[in-house]
Specification:
Elements: E1 2-7, E2 10-13, E3 18-26, E4 30-39, E5 46-52, E6 57-59, E7 67-72, E8 77-82, E9 91-104, E10 107-114, E11 118-123
Parallel strand pairs: 2-11
Antiparallel strand pairs: 1-3, 3-8, 4-5, 4-9, 5-6, 7-8, 9-10, 9-11
């Protein structure tokens, strides 16, 4: 089993910054990629940013230029630095990881895991 534990959410004024952290633990061989999604009240969960184990990154248009995703492979952790926050960034932010698991010696496949979510609230 794999666990993702997030931290770093909170309440901030518009224009402020927050840094989200997510650490993966448990039984897995390696990480394919990790990322962040968010879900605002009444909306579907949407993708925010992703980083691969090779360091390649991708961002939704709303995050480009304001958010920065990074990974510490030694700690199996991913971070999301969010700057110039806006009220529309208010949401529950979820960490996502695609990892390789090996339930048996000859069996290996990728599986997705999610964190429990951390609330980010941006006041105007």
């Amino acid at each position: 089993q794999v666990q993702l534990v997030e931290s770093g959410g909170g309440l901030v004024q518009a224009g402020g910054s927050l840094r989200l952290s997510c650490a993966a633990s448990g039984s897995f061989l390696n990480i394919n990629f990790m990322g962040w999604y968010r879900q605002a009240p009444g909306n579907q969960r949407e993708w925010v940013a992703t980083i691969t184990s090779a360091g390649n990154t991708g961002y939704t248009n709303a995050a480009k230029g304001r958010f920065a995703i990074s990974m510490d492979s030694a700690k199996n952790a991913v971070y999301l630095q969010m700057n110039n926050l806006k009220p529309e960034d208010t949401a529950v932010y979820f960490c996502h990881a695609s990892v390789v698991v090996t339930p048996a010696t000859t069996i290996k496949y990728s599986r997705d895991y999610w964190g429990q979510g951390t609330q980010v609230t941006v006041s105007s």
